Amino acid sequence: MKTAPTIIVQLIHIEGPLKGQIVELSDPIIKIGRHPSCQLRYPADLAIISREHATISREGNRFKLTDQSSNGTIVNGRRITEIFLKDGDVITVSEGGPKVSFLTQITDTPPPPQEKTSSPPVAEQPKISPPQPPPAPPAPKPPQKIKVPLIIQYGPTLRSFDDLPLKIGNHPSNDFIPDHPGILDLHAEIYYADEQYQIRDLTGRQLITKNNIPVDQGAVLQKNDVIAFSQSGPYFRFLGNGRLSEEDLSQEDHAPDGQASMHQPMEQANDDKNKSKPLSFFKKVFSKS
Prior knowledge:
Blueprint: E1 7-15, E2 21-25, E3 29-33, E4 40-41, E5 54-59, E6 62-67, E7 73-75, E8 78-80, E9 82-84, E10 90-93, E11 99-106, E12 146-154, E13 157-164, E14 166-168, E15 188-193, E16 196-201, E17 209-210, E18 213-214, E19 219-220, E20 226-228, E21 235-238, E22 243-247, H1 266-273, E23 284-285
Parallel strand pairs: 3-4, 12-22
Antiparallel strand pairs: 1-2, 1-11, 2-23, 3-5, 5-6, 6-9, 7-8, 7-10, 10-11, 12-13, 14-15, 15-16, 16-19, 17-18, 17-20, 20-21, 21-22
């Protein structure tokens, strides 16, 4: 019998006292409020949020948000009683309260097929051949237009794109224009090739790095990679499945060799600072704890 897939709910705090944090949950019912039993729990003194403010419950492969509060719950600017959520929806917990973006990720994928092994052939005398030069690396494939999703959280906003490649820069002809002094007119391109999200530097100055390594003309994006678009930012973390979230990295996050740098995952930096605190597999905290 086919079992239901495991779906991880990601709740990204984009405004409020928990801004910059991500909560990842797979519970069938997720409680939101100030009560200690809530998985998404706000400070006890944030009185505009009820103790049990709202719930997100899984129904099949969909998630329904139900308001249980006195001050209301808003989705994409509209007050709701209950609603089925979609990836990229912004939930405001109470009028004028914190904002959270909703995303999901299916984690159950079939394992790759294993190769069959056979008995080794009878050993033969090795033939000595002259050394051959190493093969030349394959030429990078030019980015081709393809329909795949990309969601970018920048500041308090979420931008959703349906097609790649995506041009990034300050010129109006670009698809995504971050308001940042470190961004040039034509800065970067995110594209999809070989079933992977990739990024390349269009500045010609090696300004863009992935985990502190220049991306040059192409680098594959993997989950938890930190991308710096220049030495002064902006910085983003790749969450997997075509999702980029802005990372708040200040100058204090620079560190000499041998220490956690600003381009390392924040979990590693926190672990270096306090190895007595184990890291949860599901919880990733962007801001400093």
